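COURSE: Structural Biology Practicum
ASSIGNMENT: Worksheet 4, Part C
STUDENT ID: 0417
INSTRUCTIONS: Below are two proteins. For each, the amino acid sequence is given first, followed by its structure token string. Answer the questions at the end about the second protein only.

PROTEIN I
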Amino acid sequence: MTEQHPIPVVVNGAAGKMGREVIKAIAQAPDLQLVGAVDRNPEILGKDIGEIAGCGELEVPVVNDLQSTLVLATQEKQQGVMVDFTHPDSVYENVRSAIAYGIRPVVGTTGLSAEQIQDLAAFADKASTGCLIIPNFSIGMVLLQQAAIQASRYFDHVEIIELHHNQKADAPSGTAIQTAQLLAEAGKTFNPALVKETEKIPGARGSLADEGIRIHSIRLPGLIAHQEVIFGALGQVYTLRHDTSDRSCYMPGVLLSIRKVTQLKSLVYGLEKILN
């Protein structure tokens, strides 16, 4: 019987809100091994990431050099995984670097453009390296999206409202964009115009996504991540809503993605693609 070694994992953005949850989840998973914690916050460099995350000492110091940490991960007995929860401005280069080192990225950072995703997909294919880009790790959100796809067969009018904390850098959210893309795959154009609309203030009607679907973004303290998909028809409104009250709800999806990406040879977009 072949000895099974734990999957080595590097967490990039380790001291952020999501990063700390990921650290705690990995520390509790016997088949995963945290080998690196990367963060740009100068106040915590050199400190133990387990102490910062609140799960006790893990003997993994916080560093700010992703490249050297990726090199460290390549020296493990099993090919490593990088979990990225950083910033839209840096995520593209982070993912390219991981693939270049043969480290499989699991990407929770949103804000990648369609062109960047296509480029990363080509790079991952060429390197035969698995990569997962997951706009939302919540199982509940996947179920909402599947219900929305079913509803889109019967409703011609739909709009999306996404609500997040006011520290989120990109808008609309990657989840809302993905939801609009999934609805657009139905092959129909939504929201046929009944009147000529005039925005008295630019942006009042939200952003226009694929196939005529409007997305509205709200940013307020006190929120975490929430989304509504609202369908309308003559005499009725059908609303689907998903709310998160704690970031721990994402961890089953994150852990599943870490395990699944080691089996892939190309880029896959969306949690629904890896659910059994």
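PROTEIN II
(use this one for the questions)
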Amino acid sequence: MINPIEHAKTKDEANKYKVEPYVIAADVYGGTDLLGRGGWTWYTGSSSWYYRAGIEYILGLKIEEGKIKIEPCIPSEWKEYSIQYKYKKTIYNIKVKNLNGKNTGVEKIYVNGKEEKEIKLVADGQIYEIEVLM
């Protein structure tokens, strides 16, 4: 729904959408008179969708039920990337390694060198080194 090109595949759809087909709109209206029209492009609402798409859906960093989840969906050419996440006074240095050229899927997670099934959020002010192998 937020991918702007999905609203402008045809001339009729583009005429209804009425905003740039290369910018995420903060709003896509649902009211009968403006149904399907985009709004608020190039504003904080649209930029926040880009930010969220990048962090959650590409890099795969998600916070759920007191845990950090890493579920990347990246180009297979990416060999690694890093994220630093701060939770209260605790720092999580996360390095995702993609040595097998995958797009998705996590095989192993190491927390401070020890293999773990999950990454728990704790507010202990420590620094955690996380290694995620795809």
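ANSWER KEY EXCERPT:
Q1: Residues 65 and 120 are 9 Å apart (CA to CA).
Q2: The longest strand covers residues 80-87.
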